[in-house]
Amino acid sequence: MPPKKGLSAADKRDRMLEIFHESADVFVIKDVEKLSVKRGIIAQAVQDVLQSLIDDDLVHCEKIGISNYYWAFPSEASVKIETEVKKYETELANTKRRRVEVESALAQHKAANPKTDERAKALARLNELKSRAAEVQGELAAYRDSDPETVAAMRAASEGAKLAANRWLDNTYSLLSWCKKKFVGREAELAKFFEENGLGENIEYLE
After folding, report:
1. What span, in angstroms and rounded, lies between the C-alpha atoms of 100 and 118?
2. Which of the ends of the chain has fewer CB neighbours closer than 10 A, N or C?
3. Distance from chain centroid for Cα 119
4. Confidence of residue 87 (pLDDT cuts 50, 70, 90)
5. What is the largest CA-CA distance in the chain?
6. Which residues form the Leucine zipper with capping helix domain (predicted)?
7. Distance in angstroms (rounded) separating the CA atoms of residues 167 and 200
8. pTM of the shown model
9. How many CB atoms lie within 10 A of CB 35?
């Protein structure tokens, strides 16, 4: 014989909810577990199924003292279902109304823009112009380096870099002069050190 198929998650929820509705009583967790096992729900699944019903507001839970108490009355379930039905009916009515509005707008648009040869030619011409505009933008980007504003910005940046380089050269010569005064008699060593690091006395200022 094939193995007995277990209950689905939906079946477990329905059976546990029946326990509350049929008794209309308040339970502690031990009572829920005992009655659920009798309905075919394994003990290990009781907590998860119960929590899913609580999360969906189908079962209430209240902590009193050190114990949690659970209940769910049939009248509450019917009220909840009726509320949801009204909600979905309202959403359906709004969707239908919106559909009518969209279909009406679409019909008006088609009436105002009939598919004539002249309109087809105009659309084709528009697509051609869009394509050409994209090509021109590409060509413009290729010549952007020659743009007067770009060239002016590059020149300004170059001038700033030149001033900074000359300023650092001033600082280097000042440092070399200080070292010569500080380390008298070791001028040759200082000159060699600076030259090896590309800072010889023959470096010229940028013009």
Report:
1. 30
2. N
3. 41
4. confident
5. 109
6. 149-205
7. 16
8. 0.39
9. 19
Question: Could you tell me if 78 and 58 are in contact, meaning their C-beta atoms sit under 8 angstroms apart?
Answer: no
Residue 20 burial (CB count, 10 A)? 25
Q: What is the per-residue pLDDT across 50-74, written as a single tens digit (0 to 9) for each?
A: 999 999 888 899 998 888 999 988 7
Give the residue from 81, 73, 71, 68 showing the smallest Cα distance to 30: 68
| The pairing of beta strand 67-71 with beta strand 60-64 | antiparallel
Q: Which residue has the tokens 């577990």?
A: 33
Secondary structure (H, E, C), the chain: CCCCCCCCHHHHHHHHHHHHHHHCCCECHHHHHHHHHHCCCCHHHHHHHHHHHHHCCCCEEEEECCEEEEECCHHHHHHHHHHHHHHHHHHHHHHHHHHHHHHHHHHHHHHHCCCCHHHHHHHHHHHHHHHHHHHHHHHHHHCHHHCHHHHHHHHHHHHHHHHHHHHHHHHHHHHHHHHHHHCCCCHHHHHHHHHHCCCCCCCCCCC
Place of tokens 């070399």: 176
**Of 86, 58, 55, residue with least CA distance to 71:** 58
Length of the chain: 207
